[in-house]
Fold:
Amino acid sequence: MRAFLFFASWLVFCLVCPLFCLLLLLLHSCYVIYTSGGLPTFIFTRYYAVDT
Structure:
């Protein structure tokens, strides 16, 4: 029973951690898009801005 609980907690940890990291990444990118002036501005500066 103890081994099963250990395996279950390890499995949950391995499933939740990447999801949590992905959620943080999504929140960060949403924050960056929001602070840079919306999605069109973000796309424009990301893909059409000329490197000087």
Notes: The mean pLDDT is 81. The chain has one domain: 2-48.
